[in-house]
């Protein structure tokens, strides 16, 4: 039973700081011109699906290389083991500031304050690449309404605390509470969207 959304965060498309690729368009062209080097790293299905949506939206054929965690993926891109990756901001903020990684695009509808120099995919001419990953709270089916209400109130109060807001902002995560109905609709819409991407990419969703 959905209780409430807790937080949302976008993804960044990154390449190595020494990569010859400077834009999304150049990345697509480079991948098509160098098919043996056209790959991406990911540590979980959501990141893989984001990359496969990018393939579908650009007519590319970047191949999936699995890793255990986002930190490993960032290291793989920095070292040149893989060409690019879609990652959450936490593991790559430091390498981006240090110039070890370069962000080519962000999956928001407009440039966020934390990444003012990173273009959106719409700016780069790639449609349908607005992606927001999220985390939320669910409970067993049949949980009493009064418990659901108390949990929702507690979540809203917690996310409203300045210290919590500052901590989330530091890692480019947006805290957000919802009603059960709003959270259920979000889950439904995301499942439909990503099921279509997975089927087209021949990915089996667990």
Report on the architecture of this protein:
This protein has 206 residues and is of the alpha/beta class. It has two domains: 2-6 and 133-193, no CATH class; 10-130, Periplasmic binding protein-like II (D-Maltodextrin-Binding Protein, domain 2, 3-Layer(aba) Sandwich), CATH 3.40.190. The chain is built from seven helices and eight strands, in the order ββαβαβαβαββααβα. The strands form two sheets. The chain has a five-stranded mixed sheet, sandwiched between helices. A three-stranded antiparallel sheet has the order 7-1-8. It is globular, with a radius of gyration of 18 Å. The chain starts with a strand and ends in a 5-residue tail after the last helix. The mean pLDDT is 94.
**Shape annotation:** globular
Helical proportion, percent range? 40-55%
The helix count comes to: 7
Annotation, overall tally of beta strands: 8
> What is the CATH class name of the largest domain?
Alpha Beta
The main β sheet shows up as: 5 strands, mixed
CA-to-CA gap between the ends?
19 Å
Q: How much is the radius of gyration in Å? A: 18 Å
CATH superfamily of the largest domain: Periplasmic binding protein-like II
Strand order of the largest sheet: 4-3-5-2-6
